[in-house]
C-alpha cells in the first residue's frame, strides 16, 4: 500500500496487543501483509502475563460442543473461530514457537514451564520475526472513516495510520490496570455497532450478611451454590467457595457471578448454599439424629467439625440459634431442624460484585448480530474485524476465555489478511 503524505500506511492495523490482537497480527502477517500492532500500555500481553496466577491456563480439552455450550446460548457464534484455531491447533502453534504444553487434571492446558511469560515471549518473538510493527504506548482514539469508508485509525496524538483493514482486539472493561479500559466499545460504536452493556464477570460477590468477613480466607469444598430466583437453574454449580472480607469468591462463585451481575440490575440476588453438595435439609436431620444415637455426649460444634471448618461451625450454630456446646443428646428437635436448615440451605444475599477492578472478564460487549461469525468482519463497516473479549461472549474459568481470544484473534487476522 502506498504511503500518503504525513501518514504511515499498512495493510492491516490491529488495535490492542493482548491474546487476541497478537494472534491477529501473527495471522495477518503470515498472509504476507504489512501489519501494525497498536497497544496503549507500555507492554504487550499484560493479561497473558497475569493469567492463571502467572502460569497461564491457556486452553482446555473439553469436547468442542461442551466448550461452546459453556459460553451460553450465543456460544454457536464461536464455531468458525474454534474450527480455525481450536485447542489442538493452538497447542501445535505454541509448540512450534518453542512453548510445549502440558495437561493438568486431564483437562486444563498450561505451558510445560508453567510460566505465562514464556507464552507472551513466544508471541513477541513471532511478531518480530514476521516484521510486524509493534507500537507501544499508542492509544487509538478513533477509527478513521472517510465518506463511509474505513481508512485506518487515528491515535490520541492525532496521528493517522492508514490501513486497508482494522482489527479491533481491545478487550473488555475488566482489570483496567492490565489494559481493560473499555476503549474498544466507542471504536466499535463509531462503526455503528451495538453494544450490550458490559458487566463484571468471573468476579467475587459482596453479600448483605457480614458474617462471611469473620471467616475470610476459609475455603469450603464440594458445596453447591444456586440462585434462588424464579427461572434460574435449579441445579446450581458445585465446587469450592472462598469466604472473603466482604462476601464470597472461589471457583463456583466466580462461575456464577456473570449471571448474578446481570440479575443485580433488578436488585439484590438471593443465593442458597448446600454446604455438602447433594445433602439437603432432610438428610441433615437424619445425620443429626444419627449422631444423637451414636455420639450423644459430644457437642454440636465438635460433631460438625468432622465435616466443616471449625470457624464456620460456630457461625452456623449462631445462625441457627443453637448453643454450640450443647451435647447432641440434649439438642432439642426445634434446634436440630434449624441447624439442618442452615446446613442444607445456607442463605446469602448478594448486593453487589467487587466490580471491574478485579473481574477476570467482562460480560457484554459488541453485539454478535453485527458481526459475521465466519470472518469476524463487521456487518456495518467493511474492512473492520473484531476479536476477543471485546465481543459479547464470556466463558467460565479454566482456559475458556484465553482460548476464545486466541481463536477469534487468529480468524480475524486471517480474514483481514486475505481481503
Ligand atoms: C488476572 C487475570 C487472570 C486471568 N487468567 C486466565 C486464565 O488463566 N485462563 C483464561 O482462559 N483466561 C484468563 N483470564 C481472562 C483472559 O486473560 C482474557 O479473557 C483474555 O486475555 C482477553 O484477551 P483479549 O486480547 O481479548 O483482551 P486483552 O487481553 O484485555 O487485550 C486487549 C488489549 O487492548 C489494549 N487496548 C484497549 N483499548 C485500546 C486502544 N484504544 N488503543 C490501543 N490499545 C488498546 C489493552 O491495553 C490490552 O492490552 C484472566 C484475566 C485476568 C484479568
Oligomer: single chain
Uncertain runs are 1-6
Task: List all distinct small molecules, including ions and cofactors, that are bound in this structure.
Answer: flavin-adenine dinucleotide
The CATH superfamily of the largest domain appears as: FAD/NAD(P)-binding domain
Would you count the extended β strands for me? 18
Task: Give the fraction of residues assigned to helices.
Answer: 25-40%
Report the principal-axis shape: elongated
Q: Based on the coordinates given, report the CATH architecture of the largest domain.
A: 3-Layer(bba) Sandwich
Number of helices: 14
Description:
Helix content is 34%, strand content 24%. The chain has 419 residues and is α+β, with helices and mostly antiparallel strands. The chain folds into 2 domains: 8-199 and 362-417, FAD/NAD(P)-binding domain, CATH 3.50.50; 204-354, no CATH class. Helix 1 (19-30) runs parallel beside helix 6 and helix 10 packs across helix 13 (333-344). The longest helix has 18 residues, at 400-417. The chain is elongated. The model is unreliable at 1-6 (pLDDT under 50). The chain binds flavin-adenine dinucleotide. Flavin-adenine dinucleotide (FAD) is lined by residues 15-21, 38-41, 46-47, 50-52, 56-57, 139-140, 169-171, 174-175, 178-181, 183-184, 360-361, 388-390, 399-402, 405.
Amino acid at each position: 500500500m502506498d504511503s500518503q503524505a504525513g501518514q504511515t500506511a499498512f495493510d492491516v492495523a490491529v488495535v490492542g496487543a493482548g491474546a487476541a490482537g497478537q494472534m491477529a497480527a501473527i495471522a495477518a502477517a503470515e498472509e504476507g501483509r504489512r501489519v501494525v500492532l497498536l497497544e496503549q500500555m507500555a507492554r504487550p500481553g499484560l493479561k497473558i502475563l497475569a493469567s492463571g496466577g502467572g502460569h497461564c491456563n491457556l486452553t482446555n480439552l473439553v469436547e468442542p460442543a461442551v466448550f461452546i455450550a459453556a459460553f451460553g446460548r450465543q456460544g454457536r457464534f464461536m464455531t468458525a473461530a474454534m474450527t480455525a484455531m481450536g485447542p489442538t491447533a493452538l497447542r501445535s502453534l505454541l509448540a512450534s514457537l518453542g512453548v510445549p504444553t502440558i495437561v493438568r487434571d486431564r483437562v486444563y492446558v498450561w505451558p510445560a514451564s508453567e510460566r505465562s511469560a514464556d507464552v507472551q515471549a513466544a508471541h513477541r518473538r513471532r511478531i518480530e520475526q514476521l516484521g510486524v510493527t509493534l507500537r507501544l504506548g499508542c492509544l487509538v482514539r478513533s477509527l478513521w472513516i472517510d465518506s463511509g469508508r474505513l481508512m485506518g485509525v487515528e491515535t490520541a496524538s492525532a496521528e493517522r495510520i492508514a490501513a486497508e483493514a482494522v482489527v479491533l482486539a481491545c478487550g473488555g472493561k475488566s482489570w483496567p490496570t492490565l489494559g481493560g479500559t473499555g476503549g474498544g466499545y466507542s471504536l466499535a460504536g463509531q462503526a455503528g455497532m451495538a453494544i450490550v452493556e458490559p458487566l463484571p464477570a468471573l468476579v467475587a460477590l459482596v453479600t448483605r450478611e457480614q458474617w462471611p468477613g469473620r471467616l475470610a480466607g476459609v475455603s469450603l469444598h464440594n458445596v453447591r451454590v444456586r440462585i434462588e430466583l424464579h427461572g434460574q437453574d435449579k441445579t446450581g454449580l458445585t465446587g469450592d467457595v472462598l469466604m472473603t472480607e466482604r462476601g464470597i469468591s472461589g471457583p463456583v462463585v466466580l462461575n456464577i457471578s456473570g449471571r448474578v451481575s446481570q440479575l443485580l440490575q433488578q436488585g439484590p440476588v438471593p443465593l442458597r448454599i448446600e454446604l455438602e453438595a447433594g445433602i439437603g435439609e432432610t438428610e441433615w436431620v437424619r445425620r443429626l439424629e444419627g449422631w444423637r444415637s451414636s455420639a450423644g455426649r459430644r457437642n454440636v460444634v465438635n460433631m460438625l467439625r468432622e465435616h466443616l471448618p471449625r470457624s464456620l461451625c460456630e457461625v452456623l450454630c449462631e445462625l441457627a440459634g443453637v448453643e454450640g456446646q450443647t451435647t447432641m443428646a440434649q439438642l432439642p428437635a426445634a434446634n436440630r431442624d434449624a441447624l439442618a436448615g442452615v446446613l442444607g440451605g445456607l442463605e446469602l444475599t448478594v448486593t453487589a460484585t467487587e466490580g471491574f477492578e478485579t473481574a477476570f472478564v467482562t460480560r457484554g460487549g459488541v453485539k454478535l448480530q453485527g458481526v459475521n461469525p465466519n470472518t469476524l468482519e463487521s456487518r456495518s463497516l467493511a474492512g473492520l474485524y473484531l476479536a476477543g473479549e471485546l465481543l459479547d461472549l464470556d466463558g467460565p474459568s479454566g482456559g475458556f476465555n484465553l482460548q476464545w481470544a486466541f481463536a477469534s484473534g487468529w480468524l480475524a487476522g486471517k480474514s483481514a489478511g486475505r481481503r
